[in-house]
Amino acid sequence: MLTITSKFVRPSTAVEFFTDAVFDQHRAATYAGKYNRVSDTVSDDGLTRTIVGEWTTRLAFTEFMADPVALAYKAARSAYNKTNGITKKDEFDYVPSEGDTPPVV
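and the corresponding structure tokens:
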């Protein structure tokens, strides 16, 4: 399993965090059973958004990273964040699961 914690920090609450409902629907439909959004929270001061998501396998995440829709989303989010002064930091926690490591014979 791969757990990714993404933290977005905006300069003020007047700046909206980037969202894309169409992409969220695509991810939910395309990666059902492979991805789960564990939490999506905003700090008390409203400046930090933390999203925690889990991928069932590294292969599922690799598939997602090559998805043209996901690549377009990431490019749009990156451009928006840069224009609006939003920073992003990711933390990864990887625990090998079935299908991620060669079987022991």
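(Above: one complete record from the training split.) The first strand starts at residue 2 and ends at 9.
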